[in-house]
Structure formats: structure tokens, C-alpha cells
Design goal:
Blueprint: H1 3-44, H2 47-80, H3 83-117, H4 124-153, E1 158-160, E2 167-169, H5 172-177, H6 179-209, H7 214-249, H8 251-257, E3 269-274, E4 285-290, H9 293-299, H10 309-320, H11 329-358, H12 366-374, H13 377-392, E5 397-399, E6 403-404, H14 415-444
Antiparallel strand pairs: 1-2, 3-4, 5-6
Helix pairs in contact: 1-2, 1-4, 1-6, 1-13, 1-14, 2-3, 2-14, 3-4, 4-6, 6-7, 6-12, 6-13, 7-8, 7-9, 7-11, 11-13
Length: 473
């Protein structure tokens, strides 16, 4: 096996996965918020809320479109770059991936089309149900994908076929009661809702700062703050418990996120460190250690024990044979801190906004509006760091304890072929990135009056009227 081919295959899949995951949380979170806005309009009949629904609905559609395009690429990579992996997990992944395609994706696509083209045509209640069905579909899609990914972190509900050596699914219910899935999925949903709400807050703050429909965007700023208040706290709490779950099933991942070479009890958490990244250099210079914090994060107890990398490496060698079972420590260490530090700052922004709201200064505080506008970057950085923490921490396993990454790729694919397609993907994704940023900036900054003042959904239309329906998206 050519190692450079393996590294390039990993880099290619990391590129497509991380890029795709930029759009997934936006789609999940923003679809819920758009559904809330439309429900608000449905109950009040306020035409300003209808325009806000269509305004943020446009941003939602942009992310769905690019998210679908970037996600489809991964389906081909499974078979082309990771054929051994696909063959190994096929008897397990077939069920959740089929559910995602046949249930969630069809639910999303069908009701997205009905919602998008149903303005001024469908009865108002039916049209409202379409956006809620879309929101449910996006959440279900994430559930099936997360069930499959969580199985890779902690395989459950299987028997090993003695003839083929491959796992066979025997209990599909175990996939959806897997503790890694339950807490991981809850964390993804909360992070997605946080992403959508921060995006809505950032766009609203920009319009408030520029005096564009201030009364309307003050309403969405307040809505986003109301959603962010519990969400920003819950995402920290669920993420903390997810660390406890991972200590149980993936102790190497947790030890690596602190670069903790020796077993400790109680264990401190370092704010930053230099050195200590390899087995030949285990002495790190740590900056500001917080006593007991790692024990709390990893075990949920004040004096909990965290097994060190050296001890875990010895255990894995005894169980699985010779090899290096320690993931990339700098990536693990800094991914965890990037995610945690950003997640800890967002509640402060929310409290600032709520304080200004209470004082009647939310629409006039330029300092908050500038900070809130630029805060749109934070959830994307946080989500990417969390995804890297999850996936890098599993290495060198592609399926924890069952299949090494080096045994999962396609031996018939050459280094040159992977390199060529990697460069092509980078070029394509760069173009898509420019298009995405351009579209988001253009439609996020347009005046609310440009959305249109048509009759709105719910009048059912006149069946004798043969004039074409004009969609004002």
C-alpha cells in the first residue's frame, strides 16, 4: 500500500466532508427558524413577517442547493476511493443510508419544492406545513447520517460473519440507541440551531446598523436572541456530557485532546501548550492549567481518572497488535479548544444583546451590531473544529476497533489519480465558495422591500385565472 496514496485519499475525503459540513448546520438551523417566522406570520397575518420569511427562506435555499451538490460527491468517494471500507461496512450502512435517501431526502426535496413554488398557490395552512416538513426532513437526514457515523465511533448491534470477517447488522435499533449517537446527534442539532440563529442575528444586526427596515430586522434580532439564550447553554452542557460518553468508548480520543501522556487523577486542563506532541517529546510547556477541569469534562466527576496515552497505547498493542494508535495530537488538542472557546464566548454575546434589548438600545448600539455581524464566522469555525475533533480522534481506525484506515481505501487507485481529483475538487470548491459568499452577501444585504408585496400564500388562487403565477424569490 502506497502511504502517500492513503494520505491523499484521506485529505480528499476530509476536504469534501468538512466543506459539506459547512452547509449542513445552516440548513438544519435556518429551516427551523424560517418555519417559526412563517408560523408567526400565519397566526398574525402581518405582511412584514411574510417578507421576512421569504427573505431568510432565500438564504436557506442557497445553502440547501450548495449543500446537496457538495454532499453527493461523498457517495462516489465511498465506492471509488474507499472500496475496501465500503465492502466492509456495507451490511451495516445499507439500512441507515437507505433510510436517509428514501425517507429524509425525499421528504426534504418534495416539501422544499412545494414550499418554494407554492407561494400564492397552496392554501396558507398547507404551505406552512410544507416548511415544517422540510425542517423535519433536514433533521431526519442528519439523524440517519449520524447513526452511521456513530457506529464507526462505537460499533453496536452486529455480529462478525466468520466466513467474510465483515460485520453484519443484527439489531437496527441498537444503531439509534447507541449512546454516541444519542448525545452526538443532540449536539449536532443544538449546534445547527445555534448556527442558524447566529446567522439570523448577524444579518439582522447588519440591517439595523445600516438603517434598512430597522423595525422588521429588530424582530428577527430578538427572535434569534430568544433562540440563542437556551441553545448556547445547552450546546455546552450536551457537549460536556458527550466528552464523558467518549471517555467510555474512545478513551484515546479524550486523552489526545489534552495530549495527556500519563494517567492522572485528578486531571487539569491547560488553556494552551507548546511541545509534548510526540512519544519522543512528551514534556509539554503548559500555559495556565485549570485544576480538575479535565476530570470534569472527561468523567463528569471532580477527581475522575483519565487514562494516559502511554497506557492506552500499550493496551491497544496487546489487544490489536503492533502499531501506532495515537491520533494527530496538535489537531486534536487545538480543535477541541477552538470549539470550546468559541462556544463559551457566544453566550456572552447573547447576554449582551439581551441586556441591550431590555434597555431599549438593541436597535441603536453600533458596537453590538458590528460584533454581532462579524460573529457570523464563529459557528462555522466552531462546527469545523468539532468535526475535526470527532473524526481525527478516531484515527488510526476508520471503524473503531474493527478496521484500520490504511485497510479501508482502494488499492487499485493510483497516487496520481487521487492527486488529480483532489486538485480538481479544490478548484471546484473554491468556485462554489466564491459563488456561495457572493449569493449570501447579495441576498442577505438586499432591502426587505425587494422581496415583493404580492398577495402571499393562503388565498388559494382563482381556479379560473389563467395568468401565470410570478414567483418573487
Amino acid at each position: 500500500m502506497d502511504l502517500s496514496q492513503l494520505d491523499l485519499s484521506r485529505l480528499q475525503f476530509a476536504t469534501t466532508t468538512i466543506y459539506h459540513f459547512v452547509f449542513v448546520p445552516v440548513t438544519i438551523g435556518l429551516s427551523f427558524l424560517v418555519a417559526v417566522l412563517q408560523t408567526w406570520w400565519h397566526r398574525s397575518g402581518d405582511d412584514e413577517l411574510r417578507r421576512l420569511t421569504r427573505f431568510f427562506g432565500t438564504l436557506l435555499v442557497i445553502n440547501i442547493a450548495i449543500g446537496v451538490v457538495t454532499g453527493i460527491v461523498q457517495e462516489f468517494e465511498f465506492g471509488m476511493n474507499w472500496s475496501q471500507y465500503s465492502r466492509f461496512v456495507g451490511d451495516v450502512f445499507g439500512a441507515p443510508l437507505a433510510m436517509e435517501g428514501l425517507v429524509a431526502f425525499f421528504l426534504e426535496s418534495t416539501f422544499l419544492g412545494l414550499w418554494l413554488f407554492g407561494w400564492n398557490i397552496l392554501p396558507r395552512g398547507v404551505h406552512l406545513a410544507c416548511i415544517w416538513a422540510l425542517a423535519v426532513g433536514t433533521a431526519l437526514s442528519a439523524a440517519f447520517i449520524m447513526a452511521a457515523n456513530s457506529w464507526m465511533q462505537h460499533p453496536v448491534g452486529i455480529d462478525i460473519d466468520q466466513t467474510t470477517g465483515r460485520p453484519v447488522l443484527t439489531d437496527i435499533g441498537a444503531l439509534f440507541t447507541n449512546p454516541v449517537f444519542i448525545w452526538g446527534y443532540a449536539h449536532v442539532l443544538l449546534a445547527s440551531l445555534l448556527t442558524g440563529a447566529v446567522l439570523m442575528l448577524a444579518v439582522s444586526a447588519w440591517h439595523l446598523r445600516h438603517g434598512s427596515s430597522p423595525d422588521a430586522f429588530l424582530r428577527t434580532a430578538k427572535l434569534s436572541l430568544v433562540v440563542l439564550l437556551p441553545t448556547s447553554v445547552l450546546v455546552l452542557m450536551v457537549g460536556s456530557h458527550l466528552g464523558v460518553v467518549e471517555t467510555t468508548y474512545q478513551p484515546m480520543k479524550v486523552a489526545a485532546m489534552e495530549a495527556q501522556w500519563e494517567t492522572c487523577s485528578p486531571c487539569s486542563f491547560s488553556v494552551a501548550q507548546t511541545g509534548g506532541w510526540t512519544s519522543d517529546d512528551q514534556d509539554a510547556t503548559k500555559v495556565i492549567e485549570i485544576p480538575h477541569l479535565l476530570s470534569i469534562l472527561a468523567t463528569g466527576s471532580f477527581d475522575g481518572q483519565v487514562t494516559g496515552l502511554n497506557e492506552l497505547q500499550a493496551q491497544y498493542e496487546q489487544k490489536y497488535g503492533p502499531g501506532d494508535y495515537i491520533p494527530n495530537l496538535p489537531v486534536q488538542y487545538w480543535s477541541m479548544r477552538t470549539m470550546a472557546y468559541i462556544a463559551s464566548v457566544i453566550p456572552l454575546l447573547v447576554l449582551w444583546g439581551l441586556w441591550l434589548w431590555r434597555r431599549g438600545r438593541l436597535a441603536t448600539s453600533r458596537a453590538f451590531q458590528v460584533v454581532a455581524t462579524w460573529s457570523v464566522l464563529t459557528p462555522f469555525i466552531m462546527n469545523t473544529a468539532g468535526w475535526m475533533l470527532t473524526e481525527n480522534g478516531r484515527q488510526p481506525w476508520i471503524v473503531q476497533g474493527l478496521l484500520l484506515t490504511e485497510d479501508g481505501n482502494s488499492p487499485s487507485v493510483s497516487t496520481e489519480e487521487v492527486l488529480l481529483t483532489l486538485v480538481v475538487f479544490w478548484a471546484m470548491y473554491a468556485v462554489l465558495g466564491v459563488v456561495w459568499v457572493h449569493l449570501m452577501r447579495r441576498y442577505a444585504r438586499r432591502d426587505l422591500g425587494e422581496v415583493g408585496d404580492g398577495p402571499g400564500a393562503g388565498d388559494g388562487g382563482d381556479p379560473t385565472d389563467s395568468r401565470p403565477v410570478v414567483l418573487t424569490y
